[in-house]
């Protein structure tokens, strides 16, 4: 039985009330209860969906009824299906022009959403969806648009390019979706989004989804949505129970050696290793390949074709390990990823949750391993507090453990050959003759052959074993007692960003070089892998500037930042020695701009950067498209 829209809304309302009051629904809503079209229902039944998630149960009836939606939901809550299923149900396949437009912040997300539309429209003959994004061949996009498509999923920059060319006709657009709007704001695309909105029919239906609701996003909603229904799915930032989380305290052992030991003994299918910089993805991939692992980098400097091919190789088991940055890995959905390694700890707990969410997909179990330097303990505690789950200290595999593991593998190979090869008579005769001729025993011959086989990968591993740092729970208790006496960090008044969690750095670019705070934020955020909200006060002087960054910045990150250019000048970043802290030497040194705290709600609007990754402003090359 299919329920009427009004009755569906009533049941959803009751479901939300019961959920928030801790009561369980006696009559859970099923997809079959919703007024979705028969082909869409058939497709979701084929993929095994039965019960809609909270965001799906709330959004589908409203979108089916033609209403606008302002939804607050994190990645992983099922919001793609929340808008794709009802919009597909209303699609007119006889009309061969775009009826649905989805704007996404990154090319990876655009591809993922387009694939979801294709999956849900499996039983809709003649359906066409087209992802459009920068870095992809424009000729192919033009040809497919001319042929006719029903759904377009694109990044703002490339959608604008097609609108200016006249190759994308939105005259018959019925529905527009803004996916991850806050991410588009963070990446500097919000002005482009508004420009696109102004070039769409006023009669369109609009759905805006965002994990957070900064005032700029609220303003867009107020200006472009009509009587929108607000849906808020509470974010707990908790990680899945099917993901085992452990950490290793970096102490006395090289991180690469530690990673190699883990790879030796940890049974994994596919793996993603997260690092902070694009350079590190290449360097680590090369080092792992030299050690015999099937590894490849994934970063923003790679062209889109290569990035897609890398992900496809991971999906099809032609590649086992991908080393990626946060931005490059956004949107990766590969079921065989059994392990995630945070080689470099993220500065943000949300980034950590997003990273480890790449494993444990489709109900499978996963494992997340986190490398933590002693100076990064604070970040570990922050992640544990945000995710509300303890991360267990792991013991690094010893040399003896690795040796045993290699021996087990070696002996298993011998067993497999003896089991699978029924006729070894040629080799028996050959070695028996060799033994008689040279007067050596079968054991000596076997030992020599074993040595040859393991020469490139010796069975006897020689590691300098270092005991992992003890998990000092008393330190946590003391910290808890201090917080109890003084109030938690969230309860205390916010202090200046130059506290013990931040350090002040000097960079050799200033007002006389036409530098702006946005240029500095963009360069550091893009090249150091630090989200803009973790970049503190910026002060501009005539010949230099200062910027507050998280304490404990890795040396390799600082070395990389020294070469990054802003306004065609290298940053030459160095720890500030205090010369710029004690006021201004004269009025000429005083910043002309009011200080802004980029770590708070007033986030900068990133401008498009050139493809060199230098941080200096360039033409609208749409680096993030």
TrEMBL record:
Chemical reaction(s) catalysed: ATP + H2O = ADP + phosphate + H(+)
GO BP of this protein: cellular response to cold; ribosomal large subunit assembly; RNA catabolic process
Keyword list (alphabetical) reads: ATP-binding, Cytoplasm, Helicase, Hydrolase, Nucleotide-binding, RNA-binding, Stress response
Question: Which organism is the protein's source?
Answer: Cellvibrio japonicus (strain Ueda107)
Molecular function via GO: ATP binding; ATP hydrolysis activity; RNA helicase activity; RNA strand annealing activity
Chain positions covered by the region annotation Disordered: 463-510, 572-625
Location(s) in or outside the cell: Cytoplasm
Q: What is this protein called?
A: ATP-dependent RNA helicase DeaD
Which EC number(s) does the record attach to this protein?
3.6.4.13
**Mind giving the lineage of the organism this protein is from?**
Bacteria, Pseudomonadati, Pseudomonadota, Gammaproteobacteria, Cellvibrionales
Q: Specify the domain of life of the species encoding this protein.
A: Bacteria
Q: Which GO terms describe its cellular component?
A: cytosol; ribosome
